[in-house]
Protein 1
Amino acid sequence: MKIAFVFPGQGSQYVGMGRQLWNDFDEVKTLYKEASEALGHDIKKLSFNGPLEELNKTFRTQPCILTASIAAYRVLTSKGVFPYVVAGHSLGEYSAIVAADVLPFKEAVKLTEKRGKFMQESVPEGKGLMAAVMGLDRNSVDEVCLNVKTGYVSPANYNSPGQIVIAGERTAVEDAMKLAKIAGAKRVVPLAVSAPSHCTLMVEASNRLAELLNTIEFRNSGVSVVNNADAMFLNNAEKIKLSLIKQLNSPLLWEDSIRNIVDNGINTFIEVGPGKTLSGLIKRIEPSARLFNVEDTDSLNKTLKELRS
């Protein structure tokens, strides 16, 4: 069976994520210890106990989600389930490249914290905003953004048919949210992220990330990584590195990525990490897809049972 592992990004975090796996598996205890040593603070305490407002800060969120996702990945693969291809949504692309052996976990957890800091410093907290627009097609959302006159806003994530995320300066995004409702959007929801990614406000962060990545050695991937920026199957280390730089200030092509995976004969997806956000998106993109998730011991056991049957 060809299986795609997909890894969630920011917005999927919640206080308590990873706790059950930590309680039940020694390899997860080891992983959280590695993460805390690499970062110099107790990532387990923040992930398991919060407070949520601290966990929601971009530079905190990113290594916490990465660690929870790789914990789920390590436990799942220890049970004999392996991916044919991997993909991650935004931050989740870093979990994907760890799973594909492009980058060691310790290197990735430090990298995601720095990425979060670069993002936050590019746009001070409260100055930017992201919002999900439900019920409008791509052309309609593009037009809404073009009609905003109060600042910069643009499409950031093409998530699924009828769900597109916009990002930009707070006032401009708020005005775009109003225009989207007038244009017929079913719902418009601000997102729990503290920096507006995948838009040109992240150019400075992208440049700083490029400088950092040039000091880090990447390996060619063990399994193909379908990237956010181009929705392409990648294995080459240098191309993956360049893709991570481009990803930060370019629209995220999640719908295109999933369609490309399905077009290559892969119809089974396991969401590896906190939440089921990606499963919901994939269901709208490809209704026939077989969907599973692993974020704790209960979902692990359920997924293993259903895969075996």
Protein 2
Amino acid sequence: MIKMLCIYDVYIVIDIEQMVITNAYLKEPFNGMQIRSLDDLSYFLEIFFDKGSCPFAREFEHRGKCYFFMSHTFNNIVILTIQNIDKIKNILLDKKEILFDGLTKCYLKKELELFLEQALENFVRYKKEKFSILMFDIDFFKKVNDTYGHLAGDFILKELASLVKSSLRKSDICGRFGGEEFLILLPNTNVSGALKLATKLNKLVKEHAFIYNETNISITISLGITSVSFSDSYHSIVQRCDETLYKAKENGRDRIEYT
């Protein structure tokens, strides 16, 4: 336990059934704060974030250093950790092939599944914040590859991913779900909020100049949106969102559908 704690700047264990903090370990520069109750914890989180209930993964700055906040759920236990990014960059950056798609630098599908399952558990079991997911893919992407070549297709995917990620919040999680299909997890977002983002992305992509070998390749995207419900599982929410994306493509592409 001592060795494990040494890698964290903050390590807090919460018993969800008893609603008590069973362990709180804080190092400099956080050790001046006392965390003995959930009220103490809520105040602690509010200092660094907009509200006491935080997304399960987020970066923040404190005293000129960058930290990474994570929430982990195991049965009836929630573990909150804060770690200086300098200490974990060898894991998250030097070994980014473990977490991220090499071409688009978006999360791999298996990582998306973990994030989504965690968000579902927080929402369904612990009545945490509502969230939405947004799926999109490139219209007639095969035609791009057939006309301009697969290297052009790779360029489009990479450029598109960069364009989309530049429009997201730090708490949003974007991953490559399939060949030209992407999924975005939107914490603390209802369908209305996700629709605003989808409208922005649809317009942004349509107006962007994708220039490959001095050729401007025009592309559009179709998007599907759904929001979580208490009856959802990982498969049900993904399937529902996938069906809305299929509906967008069936209804003419370059459009948004939601449910």
Protein 3
Amino acid sequence: MKAFAMLGIGKTGWIEKERPACGPLDAILRPIALAPCTSDVHTVWEGAVGDRYNLILGHEGVGEVMEVGPLVKDFKPGDIVIIPAITPDWNSLEAQAGFSMHSHGMLGGWKFSNIKDGLFGEFIHVNDADGNLALLPEGVAPETAAMLSDMVPTGFHGVELADIQFGDKVCVIGIGPVGLMAVRGAVLRGASDIFAVGSRPNCVAIAKEYGASDIINYKDGSILEQVMAKTGGHGVDRVVIAGGDNDTFDEAIKMLKPGGVIGNVNYLGAGDYVKIPRVEWGVGMGHKTIRGGLMSGGRLRMEKLAALVQTGRIDPSKLITHRFEGLDKVEEALMLMKDKPKDLIKPVVTVKW
């Protein structure tokens, strides 16, 4: 089969690979809608998870079931399904302990374009199909559902990690697609003031549509000083980090009230250490909690998020700014994520067979 792959750090290209085999619990799909991700950029051009050779990229999409293993109960050929970016082994001890995303080792549930071939090929292998696929609901477009693979659940997981409560003042750092969904998730969780940090006009516009109360433009100066000014010097109860770099934690800690929580879902693609300001962390005793996590993935998560789309609670279609047709366009779409033009939020590639 034809596929678009990482050939090594800093290198990508089209390759030919064998069609994947279907195990007894697995499914083989062909893609219908695909969405490149900034994580692919970190993986290829920063070597964030180490070198990979001829590894098919992509972990966000919707597909049609072509084949299922003999032990698969709930899916059949012809079904249109959402493919979560994280596909745990649900019988693992880690999953039983409540950390399915780390099945068989840290980040082990993140398989696509990390430890196994991803979605940017003519056929896609999905492990544990009954636990990791979700039927595309009626009335939800495949392109929209592709946002449910990663962007929506990752943004929402940042909100969960930060443990946002009714009336909390929240700062969301980074309003790319994940940060935008964190803004929406904070609204659904009952936040009061939501300070969204970003500068690109289209992202700012969507952040306001999703419910951000204030926009903090880092080009206008220190985001810490701006947040503290807007809160009368008190700071915020919760911070969701969905962008920036290792040094972003410095300002996040400083703007956080004692007893507050930081939820990080930003993929730190480079560097060796995260810096925590000693004094503003209460010299280690300020009850300022930092939680970072990979979203859980899996079928139930996809079904619940799809229900939010169906009921109009969220509209992730607003994230899509660039549309392409044909599997051969995934390369162009990925390069958009790499180059980040000002009008980009998220590209989607639809594939017709």
Protein 4
Amino acid sequence: MPTDANLLEEYRTFGDLEAACRGFCEQVNDRPHRETRRRPTEALAEERTRLHPLPGQAFTVAFGTTRRVNWDCTISVEGVRYSVPHRLVDTRVWARFHGDELVVTAVGEHGPAEVARHPRSTPGTPVIREEHYPPRENKDGDRTPSATSAEEAAFLALGPGAAAWLVEAAAAGARRIRPKMAEAVALAKLHPATEVDQALGTAAIAGRFAENDLIRILTHQSGRDQAAPTRAGEAHSLQPGTSAWSNFGLTAAVGDEGEEL
């Protein structure tokens, strides 16, 4: 590409440039050739009768690496969660980077087909598309999780903070959610359940889903409840006072007669 050509203003992604190239090829191949006076598309139709046909199923190594679709309709590529259509849950797909995009391919009854395309992201920033999930009539009601096991029921029984934590942790693509839920239930046996639920609600609002975040928030809240915060002032300061300097170098002199000068 010449250095004076700038394609950014017209093509924002590599996929847009590819689509423009395909359109250009179709336009050129539909014009009569200068030497043969025939359109290349007509010549290709005759040449196909003498060429060996390609396999009906494409060589899947060209699609990238395989990924298993999780229950939350996502796949993990280089530590980043990307959403795929919900009908592919618990199936195998192929993912590859193409320019600045991630292309997800699935092989079905009618052969391979592209099922998702996302801009490339970084760890900690999942890429989720709403259209990849089934339609919901009551979106607010669907955000209230329901327990499917005894462990989940014990966690949700802690209160609304636990439910909010579970919803936000799943939306953020947090890892090891079930062990962290079990940790919260165990902490509720050592601390009041209301305090653990409050800590979970704080973690949900602040987006704190890492290891030991819950115990840190719980410890901070417990320390804050025991005593009011100490504020700097005349009665309390880290700066030492100057009262010790009052007698420095001021020792009284005593005369020959014993009187103070």
